[in-house]
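Readers of this paper often ask what the protein records in our data store actually look like. This encoding replaces a full spatial description with a residue-level series of whole-number codes. For reference, a complete record is included directly beneath this paragraph.
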Amino acid sequence: MSPTVLKIIVVVLLLAVIASLTSSLVFLLRDSGNTSAKRTLYTLGIRVALATALLATIGYGIHSGKLGNTAPWAHSATPTASSKTP
């Protein structure tokens, strides 16, 4: 699996988690008086499953080396002992 495909899967899963959370909020507001409605519970369960799949995908990408951290603040600004010249 290429890194581009892995990144697309991560973005799709993230959008699905956000959509599921939004639908849970809508169901919560619509079913506020109805105690027998379980749509909010089901959509939150779907969100948990999607979030688990998202974390597993990110973990696989980091473990396989296809995803990494390239943020400039993640790297140390101070030189290490091995890079100093005598």
